[in-house]
Structures are given as structure tokens and as C-alpha cells.
Specification:
The complex is a heterodimer of chains A (about 110) and B (about 110). With about 110 residues, chain A is mainly β. Helix content of chain A is about 0%, strand content about 60%. Chain A has no helices and eleven strands. In chain A, the strands form two sheets. In chain A, strands 2, 4, 5, 6, 9, 10 and 11 form a seven-stranded mixed β-sheet that branches. Chain A has a four-stranded antiparallel β-sheet with strand order 1-3-8-7, with no helix packed on it. Chain B has no helices and eleven strands. In chain B, a hairpin with a 5-residue loop joins strand 4 and strand 5. In chain B, strands 2, 4, 5, 9, 10 and 11 form a six-stranded mixed β-sheet that branches. A five-stranded antiparallel β-sheet of chain B has the order 1-3-8-7-6, with no helix packed on it. With about 110 residues, chain B is mainly β. The chains are: A mainly beta (about 110), B mainly beta (about 110).
Chain lengths: ~110, ~110
């Protein structure tokens, strides 16, 4: 299996622009998670989906952030408009219904908002 | 108080040394416990689960003390390749995982 695939790996954008991060979970996994990692705050859960349905989005910082999972093999995290404080590494992870607590992470998207 | 607290380190040890990391968690209802490893500029990867009776995987030993809400990871005979950040992870229930900020380990020749 190719593992969790995220794109792009790096994104540099200007403040105010829309940013879309993409994730393909491991085939057969039914839970998908979006995390953000910064030096100051560590790894924070933003939102997670179970069977394509958003279950907990309490970690989403504000209305500028939105996430979708239109099908079992694809999810997006969108930031509009982006701000410099959104600069971070964004990870997507997925887990299997029988082993929910073992999450497999993608390589991450390193976002820089100038 | 943070939900999961770890000593950030860094721990700098020579090859062959034994090193131990500690982690405390605040929610006594936590049910599952893990150690993840994160290499520089890479994603976190599961190192091992932590069971109530303690468990060992090669040079790595994990312990859980529910009464003290404390988790530990012991690495024996450390290798250069063990250099990484070790994340303590605590789960209240399925899909609700809380990560510690990590402890950085550097093993030197």
C-alpha cells in the first residue's frame, strides 16, 4: 500500500490567498484526521471524519478553515483567506475500523503564508 | 495544565546508553496509550502501544502507571538511528488522540 498521500508537499502563498490541501487515505481505512503542527503548539487535531462524515471539528481554528470528505478516498482542507499565522505543517492521518487508535500519517504539507 | 506533558529535552546521550522518557496525562478516564516517533521533517509513526502490564519490543520498554497517570519509555543500548522526537499519545476513546509536545533525543557516536 502507498500509505496516506498528501499534496502538495510544500505550499508558499501570500496572505489573503485561498489554500487547498489534499489527502488520500489508505484504502479501506474509514477514519481520516487532519492535524496541524507548529513549534509553539505541537500537534493539534483540527477535525476528523468517520465514514466520510465530520465527527469532531472543535479543533478547527476559525471559519476560515473548512474540510470536506466527498468520498472514502479523498479529503480536502481549505483555508480562505490565509494568514501568516496559518504557517505550519499540516498532516493527514487515517485509521482502520478494527484498529482505530493506530493512525497512519501522511508526509505532511509544509505551508508558508507570507 | 496540558492534557499530555513531556519533558521536551533535548536528551543527548552516547551510543549504547540507556535513556528513559516520561509522560504524564491529566485525564484519568484515558483508555489507550502509545509512543510515536517523529524524525526531523517527517511524519509521526507508531513506535509501540503501551499496555497496563508493561510491554517490551526489542530494546524498547514501555510502562504505564494508571494510579499516577504516568507513562514511560525506556530505550536500551541506544543507536544513532534512535535520534528522533518521541511523542507520548493518550486516547480517551477511539479517534480522540492527544499528543504530547515530544521529547527530542540525540544519540551521539
Amino acid at each position: 500500500d502507498a500509505g496516506v498521500i498528501q499534496s502538495p508537499r510544500h505550499e508558499v502563498t501570500e496572505m489573503g490567498q485561498e489554500v487547498t490541501l489534499r489527502c488520500k487515505p489508505i484504502s479501506g481505512h474509514n477514519s481520516l484526521f487532519w492535524y496541524r503542527q507548529t513549534m509553539m503548539r505541537g500537534l493539534e487535531l483540527l477535525i476528523y471524519f468517520n465514514n466520510n462524515v465530520p465527527i469532531d471539528d472543535s479543533g478547527m481554528p476559525e471559519d476560515r478553515f473548512s474540510a470536506k470528505m466527498p468520498n472514502a478516498s479523498f479529503s480536502t482542507l481549505k483555508i480562505q483567506p490565509s494568514e501568516p499565522r496559518d504557517s505550519a505543517v499540516y498532516f493527514c492521518a487515517s485509521s482502520d475500523r478494527d484498529y482505530k487508535n493506530i493512525q497512519y500519517f501522511g508526509a505532511g504539507t509544509r505551508l508558508s503564508v507570507l | 495544565r496540558k492534557e499530555v506533558e513531556q519533558d521536551p529535552g533535548p536528551f543527548n546521550v552516547p551510543e549504547g546508553a540507556t535513556v528513559a522518557f516520561n509522560c504524564t496525562y491529566s485525564n484519568s478516564a484515558s483508555q489507550s496509550f502509545f509512543w510515536y516517533r517523529q524524525d526531523c521533517r517527517k511524519e509521526p509513526k507508531l513506535l509501540m502501544s503501551v499496555y497496563s502490564s508493561g510491554n517490551e519490543d526489542g530494546r524498547f520498554t514501555a510502562q504505564l502507571n494508571r494510579a499516577s497517570q504516568y507513562i514511560s519509555l525506556l530505550i536500551r543500548d541506544s543507536k544513532l538511528s534512535d535520534s528522533a522526537t518521541y511523542l507520548c499519545v493518550v486516547s480517551l476513546h477511539n479517534n480522540d488522540m492527544r499528543f504530547g509536545a515530544g521529547t527530542r533525543l540525540t544519540v551521539k557516536p
